[in-house]
UniProtKB/TrEMBL annotation:
Biased composition (Basic residues): 79-92
One of the Pfam families matching this protein, by short name: Tcf25
Composition bias type Basic and acidic residues, residue spans: 68-78
Species per Swiss-Prot/TrEMBL record: Ignelater luminosus
Descriptive protein name: Transcription factor 25
Length: 662
């Protein structure tokens, strides 16, 4: 046999001895065929082997030297077997056992991941600011860290699981998923439902306009040519004052945003809150599907210009959505939606989210976050000049005081001194009887409310009617009573700060309410609060209430056709008044003209027909408003159409609308 063949056989034998790991208790001879099979099996184990670094070799040598064999007759064999077992164990458990250098690499990666998460705000730590070079503007970083969002809290089902238990929510979800559609786009704000139509090309898109200093990115929505045609048809349907035209548009285009908003308000007017909330979710889903890839709602650095007509739909829809979600006691989800809305335009706040974010922060027990928001924004936003913030920040300090109430007492006393008109209505809403000293004192008595300006009265009523639930806790009312008497003592002792607060109230809150606050009141629809819209003569549209004066429009409002004699009766005006876009100024003049005989019969000499017409118009508007309120309180049974009934739905779905509280 040649030497080349001998060397080949000898090398194969040595290689087989290195790779094979026979059982130490059974050293049986292996044939050539078995040797090839062993090679084929163990060949892939080499992929799991890791090359040893110098430090690992030293560690291995130290371990070998420290571990001496007990049996002195076969030291070489025991060391050899130990090394073989160690190699095999390292190959099988390489993903679990790591060397010191691997752990160092993993620690470095984990530190990098934690740094990125901290910069992106995944885990927000109150009071911690970063000095990273990625945030050159300190104020911008603080504002972004305050407004960063945890997307897991945007799903109300996660909060419902914490409230009612995961088993109940999962079983309900599985029941509704029977016979569901295939794969749909994953979204954060809302999830597509099985009874929704398949979403194709919606005609909505989003583009990046610019990126400013500090990483602030400005986006805008864009409408395709087809979507613009649909929008023009929708505007004509609104001007026609016929709800059937809006329903026709939704049947043809089930994801048209403004039509869904308009129909949702009609469903809300008829007390079908479940359908109203679902229509808003569908509109929000349509808007979210059009997000730009760089439009990350969790970072808090994405902006939308409210002046652009295309962008307002996201503001309006998201606001209505958080109101429905908050009505289901999902306060943390509503809070995250408020943060998202505020991050879209924190400088202008076109929907006055600052008037509602305190309520959801307290209900969600996010006290420290709310205090940080107040601390960081007080110097630039003057949040203490809003009644809701003045009282709510005191409540937040009370909950985290841990027995030390000095800070909470000082804040509550300042709020009572600055806004004394809040106390009596708040106690009445909480069904608390006011003692004689408070009710008879001039500082908190009826004169305190009469001295308020109309604008301040609206802010006070909005806070009281929305936030009185927070004050119904047993430990808050005794604390409030104690501080009220302390404030009265300071007033009786002629404290200087009392005069300062009176001067501030007399100087501020004068004139009409800003348009942003009026929009907030209109959309919120809080019982007992109505906006003062004397300065807004145009009709108010629910899908775009009170657009800004410097609005950037791509659509022109179509001219409303003049009503004929058939639909100019009082009955026709009443039914048209049911639409949210109704405007009393559009009442036909012929209905407002008094008859000549009646005019001559009235005493008082000369009659000003123009003034008489204005008075009659106001009377008709008041009558129509009263009839709308009367109709809204009538609950009619909902009879679903056969086409709207799902075969998989159980009778339990009938109670779904009760989840939405008003």
């Amino acid at each position: 046999m040649s030497s080349r063949v001998l060397r080949k056989l000898q090398g194969e034998k040595e290689l087989n001895e290195e790779l094979s790991d026979p059982d130490p208790e059974t050293d049986l001879p292996v044939t050539g065929g078995a040797r090839r099979k062993q090679l084929n099996i163990n060949r892939y184990d080499l992929l799991n082997q890791q090359s040893l670094s110098e430090s690992e070799v030293k560690e291995d040598d130290n371990e070998t030297e420290a571990t001496n064999p007990r049996d002195g007759d076969e030291p070489h064999e025991s060391v050899k077997r130990r090394k073989k077992k160690k190699k095999k164990k390292s190959g099988k458990h390489s993903s679990v056992q790591r060397s010191s250098e691997d752990n160092a690499d993993v620690d470095e990666v984990e530190r990098s991941v934690r740094e990125v998460n901290r910069l992106l705000g995944e885990n927000y730590v109150p009071g911690v600011s970063s000095g990273s070079s990625l945030r050159p503007d300190k104020s911008t970083h603080i504002r972004r860290s305050i407004l960063t969002i945890q997307h897991k809290h945007l799903n109300p089902n996660n909060e419902l699981k914490r409230i009612f238990g995961s088993k109940i929510i999962q079983s309900e979800h599985k029941r509704k998923m029977r016979g569901g559609r295939g794969h749909v786009k994953t979204t954060w704000l809302v999830s597509s439902k099985d009874n929704w139509p398949q979403a194709g090309k919606l005609g909505l898109s989003m583009s990046l306009i610019e990126t400013k200093y500090g990483g602030i990115q400005y986006f805008t929505y864009e409408h395709s040519q087809n979507y613009r045609q649909i929008q023009n048809k929708f505007l004509e349907a609104v001007e026609s004052l016929n709800p059937d035209n809006i329903v026709t548009i939704i049947n043809e285009h089930p994801y048209h945003v403004d039509a869904l908003i308009q129909l949702s308000d009609l469903c809300k007017l008829s007390e079908d809150l479940a359908m109203a909330a679902e229509l808003i979710e569908r509109a929000l889903y349509s808007l979210e599907c059009a997000f730009h890839p760089l439009f990350n709602i969790a970072q808090g650095n994405c902006r939308l210009d409210y002046r652009r007509q295309e962008n307002r739909a996201l503001f309006i829809t998201l606001f209505k959505h958080l109101l429905f979600v908050g009505g289901r006691a999902c306060y943390r989800t509503a809070l995250e939606s408020c943060k998202l809305l505020l991050s879209l335009d924190p400088e202008n706040d076109p929907l006055a989210i600052k008037l509602i974010i305190d309520f959801y922060a307290l209900r969600a027990k996010e006290y420290e976050w709310f205090i940080d928001l107040f601390t960081e924004w007080e110097s630039t936003k003057n949040l203490s000049q809003l009644p809701n913030f003045a009282y709510s920040v005191a409540v937040a300090h009370f909950h985290i005081s841990d027995g030390d109430l000095k800070k909470a007492d000082a804040l509550l006393q300042d709020a009572l001194l600055m806004f004394p008109g809040v106390l009596i209505p708040l106690l009445e809403k909480c069904s608390v009887q006011v003692d004689n000293r408070v009710s008879n004192h001039s500082y908190f008595g009826p004169s305190a409310q009469s001295k308020q300006s109309p604008a301040l009265t609206q802010l006070v009523l909005l806070y009281v009617n929305r936030g009185y639930h927070v004050w119904k806790e047993n430990n808050l009312l005794p604390w409030l009573e104690r501080n009220v008497h302390t404030v009265l003592d300071r007033v009786d002792s002629k404290d200087v700060i009392v005069k300062d607060f009176e001067a501030k109230r007399a100087k501020r809150y004068q004139g009409p309410l800003p348009r942003g606050i009026c929009r907030h009141i209109l959309i919120s629809d809080v019982k007992g609060v109505s906006p003062l819209t004397e300065d807004f003569s145009a009709s108010i549209l629910s899908f775009d209430p009170l657009p800004p004066p410097d609005s950037i429009n791509i659509y022109e409002k179509p001219k409303r056709p003049k009503p004929g004699t058939n639909n100019s009766s009082a009955v026709g005006i009443f039914f048209r008044s049911l639409l949210p876009s109704f405007n009393a100024a559009d009442i036909p003049e012929q209905l407002l003209q008094p008859e000549e005989d009646g005019a001559r019969a009235l005493p008082g000499g000369e009659i000003n027909i123009a003034d008489d017409g204005n008075d009659l118009r106001r009377s008709v508007a008041s009558l129509v408003g009263a009839m709308r309120d009367l109709l809204s309180n009538i609950r009619l049974p909902d009879v679903p159409n056969e086409a709207d009934v799902d075969e998989n739905d159980d009778s339990e779905d009938d109670d779904e609308q009760n989840n939405y509280l008003t």
